[in-house]
């Protein structure tokens, strides 16, 4: 990590700064201008263009797999998309560019090709963050009062399983990960070997064959004309019918756009009931498992049924896949599924454990991303020189008892946003912000709302307050509650009849067998929406002047939609005379 001892006077300054110009960074900048009339922000983006995930993931067929009404900002609907269309990666990136231009982030407020190396808190009386930025092989410094992280959840491609194979470097053709697609490679009349069968692979196969059922993908008119696709299948996912078959499209399209969005949110929130580890959840999952298996068996070629249809695992434990035409594409004679494990890479292709040689011209790794990793590559130093990595700890087995420890000893953040000991620092799409039933865009907007409500006292005219941070006790209790919910009260704690090692969401300590899930949010986004608007003043330092109202009606909504109430909350409400 690069160190710098340059004096602070050499640094530029903005009141707000954000690392990353994807949905998080663009959403923050737009919200500041729209709702707070603040334009004093600098966004640092390591790539040459904005878009984040949707700039990097440009593989054939890449598209959103939830209704577009849930994949736009609530304040910036896209009139070109119907509420249930599935926009492609280029269309989503174009949408982000239009939002950035509308809210004056382009040109001028986003610095591209700039990698933030280090963020260090400068204590009172300065009370600022100092960023060390690498851009075009030159180091510069920038300071801000409020620092936001928008580095995303899925950035580092998972490639270790392939490159650890014997002979991995000997292949004579092209090897590329789906998230780093090389469009200069001509696939015409080529034999493609595809590793993986999750969301990305299920979009790639029909797109390469020209058989996607996503109208947005088909309208691109791209014909790849591949000779053959050999797909290596080592895990199985529940592939559910496309949105067109699940959602009442004709009804939705007749409704006002705002109501369409609300209905899609409510339908998605209802899905979370099935993820609970209780009688109702298990009953719903059992029915859903039967329905999806029936759909898959009726759609997939019989010869591939055993390779594709999951067995011994309940619906919901792994990320579901909306069928973009993948199952029907397996009927194409140009596709072959191989269930044998690959044990060696050779110049002409790969060898399987059964001794078979599979020849090919191009290898595509649709193997997903490293998970449970946040702000990797950025050294964040908080109050007293504490580093964020040290605060989280390197061994999740230390997370048995979180109370009384200096850090949380596992990746986590209060309300997915804040970390104790790191003042004026907020994470967007932070730990445990992923929802499998609605949209991460909703989670990002909730995080921005919470952060802005928390810093209201500092922004108030005449305020002498300069910094705010979550209390260590509140952070530890929140993270402990989240892990307890995920491990003991939802399907992801093992109720899905799988080991943690088989779940995309869960990190497993191989020595102790301890689970740590820093990906999923174990609650309803409506609960997070409410709490973002009514932050608990006792959980935050230096919020003395903040007026906190907590009506009985909203309290019951919080209990119903949010995280379980802590004993501390109950005692405080009892002391205040609040009825239950």
Automatic annotation (TrEMBL):
Superkingdom of the source?
A: Eukaryota
**What InterPro entries would the database entry show?**
FAD-bind_Monooxygenase_sf, FAD/NAD-bd_sf
Q: Which family does it belong to?
A: Belongs to the FAD-binding monooxygenase family.
**Full protein name:** Monooxygenase
Q: Report the source organism.
A: Podospora pseudocomata
Native organism taxonomy: Eukaryota, Fungi, Dikarya, Ascomycota, Pezizomycotina
